[in-house]
Amino acid sequence: MSSRIQSIDIFRGLTILTMVFVNDLAGVRDIPAWTKHALEGTDSMTFVDVVFPAFLFIVGMSIPLALQRRKDRGDSMLTLWGHVLTRSFALLVLGFFMVNMSRLNPTLAGMSHPVWALLFYAAVLALWTQSGASGGKPRPVFWVTKAFGVALIVLLAFLFRSGNASSPGWMTTQWWGILGLIGWTYLICSGFFLVFGQNIPAASALVTLAVCLYIGDKAGALQCLGPVNNVLWLGGHVGGHVSIAGAGMIAGLLFMSGSPAPTSSRRIRWILGLGGVLAAGGFLLRPLYGISKNMATPSWSLFSAAICCVVYVLLYWIADLRRQGRLFAFSEPAGANPLLAYILPDIFYSGIALFGIEQLWWGAGDGLVGVLRSLLFSAAIVGITGYCTRRGLRLKL
Fold it and tell me: Which residue pairs from 195-200 have beta carbons closer than 8 angstroms and sit at least 24 positions apart in sequence?
């Protein structure tokens, strides 16, 4: 499909906007339980538990469309693999650093948590701000800025210390963080597309295999991998998340030339049918492990992907078929510059912590007042993202 699909950008923008909102809302008390993550061990999920899967789904949906555009421009397979590996590595680095921030020992590192965090985000801005040069040739200052970003990240890694004086530690993989998990999922799904191409049956097999990977892991079949399991949880962080992104890939493949759904009505039927199959799978597998985001159970993954199918069809119908995409213009900056929108809240939180006024923010109100604060904060983040984008500050991995 040659023209850009507006509903994909809208879905991405709404997901980032909701992510900013629920992350800030997590610090608000006296609000209904469904406005936060479901409690662990309750065999349930709330709308908050679908936000991260929604981003995985739209990542999966975008992969075949984006890589095929690069193919059509003449990119070689070597160039495509280089792009995928570079982007995956960047996401892993971001997730790795961000998940370790809370483990920093200020005394051993010689700097406070907010200072270390703000320096890290400065390095991120220096490294991944897109060049604004015309003609495709970056100015020398662009490369100097990149070099500064690399040097700063290396320095921060060198200075990082956790633990205590008698037993200092360095950064560890832990759970890789949101961006790191996206990085692993992106790497696997992109690599799969580069190998199998526009093959819906193969993508369906990937989703099935991902679910089986979780079941096999729980049954002990992956214990033979030893240390690998200490670095990456294959059952959940691969099996659970790839099943969601893989479902998104199937939906994305329906928009490509030669798909079995060449018309909008058939695409809608296919995606809703996909959602029905995913929901049925989640229902049948629920007795095995229940529904749990933290445990990335198959039922959580499949139910989340099914919900994404329904939500996407609604957006597709409104934005691309009814041509009413302007209704979602408020989320456009977050969709156009998602990484900046994602890190801006952390920059803000680190800033108020640096000046010792974080309690003024988190104590600004609970209940309805806190919800309104989070809504206004989310709107402000999107507004700032839009302003920065217009001024040329666009992050691109």
Answer: 198/64, 198/68, 198/253, 198/256, 198/258, 198/259, 199/253, 200/250, 200/253, 200/254, 200/259, 200/260
Q: Indicate the average pLDDT of the chain.
A: 94
The Cα 314–Cα 268 span in angstroms is 9
Beta strands in the chain, from DSSP E residues, in sequence order: 162-164, 167-169
Closest CA to 94 of 289, 369, 340: 340
Query: Are the beta carbons of 94 and 224 closer than 8 angstroms?
Result: no
In angstroms, how far apart are the furthest CA atoms of the chain?
66
Q: Give residue 22's pLDDT.
A: 96
The model's pTM is 0.94
What tens digit of pLDDT does each residue of 312-341 get?
Answer: 999 999 999 999 999 999 999 999 999 999
- Interval 12-37 mean pLDDT: 94
Burial 125-135 (b: 16+ CB within 10 A, else e): bbbbbebeeee
* Torsion angles phi and psi, residue 365, rounded to 5: 150, 150
Nearest alpha-carbon partner for 316 in 267, 275, 259: 267
